[in-house]
Structures are given as C-alpha cells and as structure tokens.
Specification:
Structural class: alpha/beta
CATH class of the domain at 1-77 and 189-258: Alpha Beta
Distance between the termini: 40 Å
Helix content: 25-40%
Strand content: 15-25%
CATH superfamily of the domain at 1-77 and 189-258: P-loop containing nucleotide triphosphate hydrolases
Bound molecules: adenosine-5'-triphosphate, magnesium ion
Length: 258
Amino acid sequence: MIEVRGARKSYPAYDGRPPVVALGGVDLTIRSQEFVCILGPSGCGKTTLLKSIMGLVRLDDGEVCIDGEPVKGPGFDRAMVFQNFALLPWADVTANVAFGLDLRGKSKQERERTAHEWIRAVGLTGFERHYPRQLSGGMQQRVGLARALAVDPKILLMDEPFGAVDAQTRRLLQEDLLARIDLSRKTVVFVTHSMEEAVLLGDRVVLMTPRPSRIQEVITVDLARPRDANVEKDPRFVELKEYLWQQLRAMQASEPRQ
Ligand SMILES: Nc1ncnc2c1ncn2[C@@H]1O[C@H](COP(=O)(O)OP(=O)(O)OP(=O)(O)O)[C@@H](O)[C@H]1O
Ligand SMILES: [Mg+2]
C-alpha cells in the first residue's frame, strides 16, 4: 500500500517571483496491486508526485509511506519510467535495460537474458547494440519502459510512458502491458494526459488540479477486466471519458489567461 499524506512541495523561482507550488497538500492511498491513473493539466504536479513516491523528491511537508514505512529514497521495490526517458547516453540498449538488474546484483547471463526478453516485448529486437542517440524519441521511451519492467518491481511508477510513441505502437503496448501487468499483479501508478488511456487502464483515475496543485477527485472505473479495444464502445467507458473531459475543460476555463 502506498500512502501519500499531506504532501507539499514548492520549487524556488529564480526571477524574484513567488515559489512554484508543485504539490499543495496531496493525500492519496493506493492499495497493493491497484492500477491508478493520474490525470491533470500540464504543470499540475504529476511528475513531482511520482518522483516523491519514487523517493527522488524531498517533500517540504507531509510524507509518503509504503507498507507503513516512510520513503527516504529509491528502493528495489520500485521502478520508474521517466517522462524524459533518463537513459544512460554512454550505454547501449541492452546495458540501459539491464541497468536495474546490475544494481540488484544479477549475473551477467541473467541480465542479458532478461534484458533481451524485455527488448523483444517493447518491439526493439535488432537494436540491442544501438546507443540512445541512434534511436528515435519513441524508441528511447520504449527502452525506458523495458528498463523499468525488467526488474519486475512490486511498484511500477510510469510517467506518460507512451507519450512519445506513435498511436499504433501505443495501442499494442497498452494491450500487451495490460496483459503482463495483470499476470504479475503489480501496483501501478500511471501518469497520462489521455482520458481514453486513463479509463482503459485504470482501476481508479485521480484527477489533479493546478494552482493549487491538489487532488480534485478520485473516480472508480467500474469496467470489468480484462479490457480490450471493444471496451471503448461500452456506454460506461464513453460516459467516464466524457466526465473526465468536462472536468478538465472546467479546470482549463478557470485558469487565468496569461
Ligand atoms: N526541478 C524543478 N525546479 C523548478 N520548478 C520545477 C521543477 N520541477 C517541476 N517544477 C515546476 O513544478 C510544477 C509541477 O511540475 P511537474 O513536472 O510535477 O508537472 P506535471 O504535472 O508533471 O507537468 P507535465 O504534464 O507537463 O509533465 C511546474 O510548474 C514546474 O514548472
Ligand atoms: Mg510531468
């Protein structure tokens, strides 16, 4: 179980302006093996929330606990897929995917085997010896995805993991990923900009609002699993998606124009 309690985080502004409030008091409980999607406008603090669960952001106030233990830094129970990929530029695809396995002390043989399995799963067979700079944005993103999945973490933190991949690959990954995650019963916190993706993947959808950066509402997605592409024709799917869109539109309308 992940418990975020009263999480506050501000970043200093360097040009004499007031600090930027990235988290303005966030409370959220995520059950074990739950798939929770976080949806909200750009800049509302989604990445900051994920990084605080990962233990990469020091909160100004409040805390994150995992199974009752306060998070003080990264741990082997968690892995994150970064929005900006965060690949090692000097390491090839295999070494990037194997990075977390290396940290966990796996043998060379096991590292290579697992890395190649996940490289195949994200459709990058043939690129094992390429370096990140030799790959497109979408391909780099899939390397980041494979790296996080390869360590088989209990908690998977995914920051717009399909943001840079084309629509067709996104679709395939969504389906394949869902099947794999169902099998291994992970806890997943999944940030997305897409209402469709949130309703397709989530057990619950957390709507975040900017200024103040808080949770506006948590919506339960009462659609049976496994969900395939046909679920998008389900009236309940359409209704939930429409509801999320209305909420997001209302948030945007209430934003002061710059
Ligand atoms: N390291 C940082 N230094 C200064 N300000 C930051 C830093 N990281 C984030 N911010 C600010 O905090 C706010 C929240 O940022 P965050 O990246 O968490 O938002 P987000 O919801 O993930 O946005 P997006 O949807 O565009 O990825 C933004 O206003 C951003 O400018
Ligand atoms: Mg972000």
